[in-house]
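Support case: user asked for a sample of complex input and structure output to validate their parser. Sending the pair below.
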Amino acid sequence: MFRSLYHQGFARVAACTLPVALAEPAVNAQRILDAATACTEDGSALCVFPELGICGYTLEDLLQQEVLLTQTKTALLSLVQASTSLHSVMVVGAPLLWENALYNCAVVIHSGRILGIVPKSYIPNYREFYEARHFRPGAGIRGQTIDINGHIVPFGVDLLFEADDVPSFCLSVEICEDMWVPIPPSTHAALAGATIIANLSASDITVGKAETRNMLCQSLSARNIAAYLYAAAGEGESTTDLAWDGQTAIFENGTLLASSDRFPSGTTTVMADVDLTLLRQERLRMGSFADGAYQADTTPWRRISFTLSPPSANLGLRRPLSRFPFVPSAPERLAQDCFEAFTIQVSALKQRLKTSGVKTMVIGISGGLDSTHALLVAVRAADELGWPRSAVRGYTMPGFGTTDKTLASANALMVQLNIMHETLDIRPAAELMLQTIRHPYAEGQPIHDITFENVQAGLRTDFLFRLANQHQGLVIGTGDLSELALGWCTYGVGDQMAHYNVNAGLPKTLIQHLIRWCIASGHFSASVGTVLKDVLATEISPELIPAGENGPQSTESIIGPYALHDFALFYILRYGFSPSRIAFLAEQAWQDTTIGHWPPGFPTSEYKSYDLPTIRHWLEIFVRRFFATSQFKRSAMPNGPKVMPGGSLSPRGDWRAPSDGNARLWLEDLKHNVPQV
Ligand SMILES: Nc1ncnc2c1ncn2[C@@H]1O[C@H](COP(=O)(O)OP(=O)(O)OC[C@H]2O[C@@H]([n+]3cccc(C(=O)O)c3)[C@H](O)[C@@H]2O)[C@@H](O)[C@H]1O
Ligand SMILES: Nc1ncnc2c1ncn2[C@@H]1O[C@H](COP(=O)(O)OP(=O)(O)OP(=O)(O)O)[C@@H](O)[C@H]1O
Ligand SMILES: NC(=O)CC[C@H](N)C(=O)O
């Protein structure tokens, strides 16, 4: 069950376009059945077909021919009968008579039963469209039924189709023009609970129109916090005066999950696993979504319940899934994100520098990633404010674990950036403190415990704050979002504290890309770029204890890979996913180095895969640290800007949680819901 996408709160859905045989309902019904069967075999719970797909959209006055309407119903019923063996819901377009008029309808079929029929609300009758000649608008039809050869079926625009065995699977349907109006029916349906919206379309293609359709689908999926499936008619529709491109796409909450080539020949299906848990979480977070529901149309909805019985096998996961949720892998997107992140940091710092009346910035430079990046931000802020570079005061403070390599990088960086720089050896002060508190290290014992580490981190901070007093400056913090998530910093008198922390909103996995972007940005000289490349090549280490036989203290060998921690952080912070679900996603994303994309510039030597036991192990550590032991460090964190949409950990900027919480529920979830092997 763990590896079943349905068990994990996803639903596989499909949008199909296929060649239509004009005015041949039996042929079309068979083609639709074949496509739906293939989708079912692929594990799909829903297949959406084009508008009027059972007979063709471009029939004009043939739509009013008795024989066509009769044969349409017959074909529809044969499809219903044949659907008995399919677990997938089919949504099929058909012209149907109700009372005294014809309606352009979507027929929702499941396992031998028509669940309901939704008429098109808005009938286009402008430019190339003449639908009002044949159809009446369905808008306002609620609470009605329709007789389909003796079967009495719910009929109206007030229908929601809910699977009683797949949480949050709630389908609503609209038809083509319905999405082009200011307030589409799907908006009301989403406010009433629909999470999946199907659009059956027949939209002639003209130059540039495909982008407009994408924009409409994407924005509807974002506004409605829903999945939006679009299936348009293509091959076989009459080209008397128009052409057809068979566009199909699936969007979820503003993101494109899948789309097909346009102008296809033959049956074309796009399939994606929509994340129902994500949609539910996103709606509950954005309270304004629910507020919209209170103000919406109060007319009651009819909720048609059915049992989907989806497959429970391991069907993989078909949706874009990044190894690094904070780092896009498309080069242009990554460059844009880096530009924005850096600009946010610089502009936030400039504002604080302008209003606090200080004259300098004071920063501890270790030769590691975080302080290097914070220094680049500080230098850029100084440049933009017209301050001399000497207003940036960098101090490198070697301690017991500092290596020659990082010390050299720190000095080279400060020299090349032409800032005021100095080396302050903290060892005498650290030894004095260890001696004063009677730490065994002072008596010659090789005890490198937390006290030993924090004495150094604390003294560095102490020096920086006093230097800031002395030079009318602000201490620029360097600790990143991932360290805050893990509580991987020394509290109070330590690197947890600063006057202003420019890095607090930056996940560790993004920082290397930001530094690469800075090298390429033209803001800094080529010689600075050379040092930055050295910094990028250095393993992440706090360097608080002396290097052993195997080299300097390695952060990731102690607390785990930041790649996995940032993966967990993103999904916990942004969507509140359970640890077991995060383990499922992490396995999908990280099980094989050859699957999916790696961000540009990420060294191939660092390509890694993680199996489930490894993921589980580090996730347990993350969960324990995040929920139980580190919130008190975040509750008292200094000011600094939120940078990522994924979230910030400032108790004022975003995440609020008790400092005396515990991790029990999350650990239990991991224990019970993730297999041991
Ligand atoms: N809920 C709570 N509310 C208030 N106070 C609480 C608390 N829980 C513990 N405490 C207190 O806080 C203490 C623990 O916090 P703290 O003093 O910070 O110490 P601690 O978190 O134990 O140690 C800091 C860790 O961060 C690592 N570090 C430090 C500096 C830089 C880097 C880096 O690579 O970036 C890493 C370092 O290697 C060490 O493992 C406890 O001993 C206790 O006194
Ligand atoms: N040798 C040092 N000299 C000056 N400042 C230091 C030194 N070591 C640590 N610091 C300060 O303490 C902060 C935390 O140290 P830490 O080693 O975690 O960070 P880092 O080296 O900048 O980056 P990373 O966490 O990626 O190694 C640094 O960012 C820096 O401001
Ligand atoms: N069939 C329709 O409702 C088509 C109308 C819609 N405005 C389009 O051009 O796609």
